[in-house]
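for ur thesis appendix - Single Cache domain-containing protein. copy paste whatever u need, i formatted it the way the template wanted (i think)
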Amino acid sequence: MLRPTMIGALALCAFAASAVVYAQTAQFGTAEEARALLDRAVASMKPDPANTIAQINKGEGGFKDRDLYVFCYADDKVVAHGNDPTRVGLPTKDLKDTTGKLYGEEMLRVAQEGKIAEVSYMFPRPGPDTTPVSKVALVTKVADHVCAVGYYKQD
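the 3d part is after this line
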């Protein structure tokens, strides 16, 4: 009698633990979700870049999901940023992480129309914690713009 009760209790604990792990990871976007968000942004940019950029900057249009957001460069500056509108207007060549990596220049260099490149750098997650963590940006070119969505690596 005690053995079936113990097995049931252990199974319940395992289920609860897996639910907690899922809930913790679901608060952050995945590489696949970042790619889907980038694909959505590209599809919107092609017919109407000005409207898409305006939506990204206003936080509208579904271009932000948890810690995933779209950002775009044009004319050597940030023109859209779905998480921090104060970054709009910053020169792309000056964008560097805490290690000194010039990730903005690298994104401009690797971006190609119809292809997705990856650029790794250190950047804080959205929210109050400003500690830089490992981030991978999925980058592509859409006409005269370079657009990206970054996801944060899970440790």
